[in-house]
Batch of 2 targets.
Target 1
Amino acid sequence: MKLLIKNGRVVNPAAQTDDILDILIENGKFARMGKKIAAAGAKTFNAAGMVVAPGFIDMHVHLREPGFERKETIATGLAAALAGGFTAVACMPNTDPVNDSGAVTRYILDRAKTAGHVAVFPIGAVTKGLEGKELAPYAEMKGAGVRAVSDDGMPVANAGVMRRAMEYAGSLGLVVIDHAEDKNLTGSGVMHEGAMSARLGLPGVPAESETVMIERDIALARLTGMAVHIAHVSTRLGVEAVRRAKDQGLRVTAEATPHHFSLNDEAVREFSTSAKMAPPLRSEEDRKAVVKGLADGTLDVIATDHAPHTYEEKLLEFDRAPNGIIGLQTAVPLAIENLVLKKKVSLARMVDAFTGAPACILGLGNRGRIEVGLPANLTLFSLEQTTFLTPDDIKSLGKNSPFLNRKIKGAVTASVIAGKLNVLGIGTAAK
Amino acid sequence: MSLGKHLLGTEGLTAEQITEILDTADNMREIGTRSVKKVPALRGKLVVNLFFEASTRTRSSFEIAEKRLSADTLNFSASTSAVKKGESLVDTVLNIERMQPDCYVMRHASPGSHHMILPHTKASVVNAGDGAHEHPTQALLDALTIRQKKGGFKGLDVLICGDIAHSRVVRSNIHLLNTMGAKVTVCGPATLLPPKMESLGVRVTTDFEEALKKKDVVMMLRMQLERQQHGLFPTLLEYYKTYGLTKERLQRARKDVILMHPGPMNRGVEIDSEVADGPSSVILDQVENGVSIRMAVLYLLLGGGENEASH
């Protein structure tokens, strides 16, 4: 079985490629890349006008299964990932039961097998039950397929526990993904603490709620010599802390979400619960710092923190509604519109943030680049077309997004997963 | 200039709109002095008092205003309603909506809860307090009281002192007083002053005695005991000693200062009885003006004029 992707602008940051090239895929693997490839009997996809990139990876999603199947199932989450142009996702362990055992990891992978073609890499819990006390069995979970550990949403408050987690996980080659938040400093806060929270009378979450934990865990990376990945950095101070740590040669990586680089706390003005998440939308100054961090590579990765909730949960009052928004189907257009087309982040860096960087952090050696012999995963997108999604276009069970019913410049057009072509383009238009 | 359909806050109200409400309230006052304290302006209109948080004076004040305007009223409070059984705010509104209300007067602990119900109702919505966000009729009755005593707002030096962080009264007053040309200072312990409060166009200070100097209006806010329990200040006595308004402290303000309090007061915590009951106090005028303001707001929102014209 042959598939020929013709005339696309191939952007492959790992080899510093940015050229109009054809890619031939045979038996699910990259077979050739070059100018004007002719392949008799190959199915051909004309990618003229499109960017052809390595398969996009979202290393931070909540698939909600097991336990919260009204918010999302593995099947619906992967359908959203596919529609959004992702070829692989890593899913967070805050399910019910928590993914703190090989059994739950295997359950997720079993469900994923029949749920779609998008690859799933489970993330295990740092502590049993996400309680912040006893370490979860990392070796057992790794054996079952876990690629990282995280207490996302329930950060490890005890620095001693976090130290042991980093040491033990690091010795097994697992990175600890850190939801950097001091819950005591967050208190009852439900939005960024600043001029807008003062105006709206909503309790604020200071930027320092994030930065004291980032600083703590950078200190622990120094102490242990192990790797830590800071999830969803939202503040200027956080970006600066990560930059300093990298300058010092520490094994610190970080990610940013599309909502944190696209919106600021103005979005809360009408009390929309689709603008409520943790960490919260920050000030414009913070947003700009996140963009800059992505541009210079301080923030390695773009990850969605896709967090579906039911309609009725998000129909609650702002201070009572749960944190989180969906992101799988809007991430790529938002990155195109707000990073690439505004000339803040180069196309190659944007692609790297979705491909090489997360593959490297999660140790996915076969992914993140286009290379002859590797399994063929590609994401194809257009910088010209636009995306306009209505709730009906959303494949997730949760429709909680501030980016619906609005035009976003940029669109995912197709993907290749293990050699299989998926023509995409829900809600996309020519201009 | 029309007030529009809803009154969610004082933020965004123009000076003309505020003046129209105050002028209308002045006209309403006389009704309360009649032997038959009732006009048919809102006859046949159904006003639902939707209170998800305890309130005595605001609710009574609205209810009296509604009755004086001959509206039919339905009192719905959290303690007696399905809300206790877990019904959501939107579902509650959707149910009441089928009883064809013309207006909701709503109090709710969550900031912005009024914005939430707008897509689900055809009726007018009056905010009777949403968390620490806004309480527009309180600011309007405060403004009516200030206008009665001071003749206007231009250049007035106003101090609001107390639990600024948790006060809807302070936010509504800031927006209104700024629009009307007064200067506002807010004061309280640092733990109860949210960062960036100055972005609302006020001076912010923790020095109460300094802040009192040359003030035309001093507004004291209620200090709730639970703030102390949450570690925001050490003891009520310490609060009183630092931020309690005493006769001696009030002398720092202008001679003709007026002293206000949205109530209910904690005598001996934020305010001494001597000043609360003293010659500068207009606290009970505020209560009285509350009825006139609420009559004015309901009348202007519910098209009382049209109603009369059709009879």
Target 2
Amino acid sequence: MTDQTAAPVTATVATAKDYFNLLKPRIMVLVVFTGFVGIVAAQGVTGQTLHPVMAIIATLAIALGSGGAGAINMWYDADIDSVMSRTSTRPVPSGAVPAEEALSLGLILSGVSVLLMWMASNWLAAALLAFSIFYYGGIYTMWLKRATPQNIVIGGGAGAFPPVIGWAVVTGTAPLDAWILFAIIFFWTPPHFWALSLLAHKEYAKAGVPMLPVTHGARATRSQICVYTLVLLVTSLLPVVTGLAGWIYAIAALALGLGFLSLSVKVSRTAAGEPDSNPADQKAAAGLFAYSIIYLFAVFAALMAEHLLGLQTPVMELF
Amino acid sequence: MAKDNEIEVRPLTDEEAKARGRRNVWLALALVAFVMLVLTITIVRLSQGIGAMADGGF
């Protein structure tokens, strides 16, 4: 028997906070929120109800699944994270948490989250959660991210699943309305991420990650941001057409979308991401990135408010 | 030097021992939370089943 205080030479002083940071808590907040809105909207549209305790546990399962996928991402990306200053302080590249522990945590959390989801709701919600974890940890992290400049476009699907999962939790189905919410996040992801990549393109180039500004240049990226923002604006109004959302959402989505488009056009007229860009150009890109986060929260909050407060009056009924 | 099939070990420093202790506490809390969640799901499922039977659904 070995001494109780003996440890492998890799023993660390990692704290709970280090492990918590492995779960990418900021992404988790967005994932949980959009998943919860899916639960609320499904109940509002279908009239089906979900036991509040089950809703909480299902939301927790979404959070754990997001965290598990984040930890797997941190484990796999430790090599490129250590090259980029923005990510070099993450728990694995900084040495706070051994890589194998990050993987173990990711796999365990993923398994527990799917199990909890299945127990608290139904097999479809659990299967969608399992697939979204695989999508992020496997398809995006291990394949797309290092393989194609379309990594963010296709990979954005991973973060778009939560409202579909939330809808499935309530109804056991994934109808068109749920996939419209998926599409909103899907088309939101590229302009959101590319705004950031305009600021960090040198870092991505150093790490060999084929982000759009690295492979196609900043100008093409700024144009693509405008195109996707326009598609997002149109997509965000689809819930009004199907009756998923009403007037409040329509006004909010239109105003917020026009704001997003305005900032995208503003960035497209700057030299953000270019070698000769000035601080004002970079500030415009940073502003777009910050606005994109507020945009998604606000659009989904408007939808949730309509359904929670019973204010959802389908626009089409008024004509 | 350790042989290939042996894990090289050394005594924990005080800081490492404290960190391991804290991690163990968190792990225990997580396990308890998981058990409580499963118990809660079971209770809610049972109550829903009983309610469905009372409504003539059985």
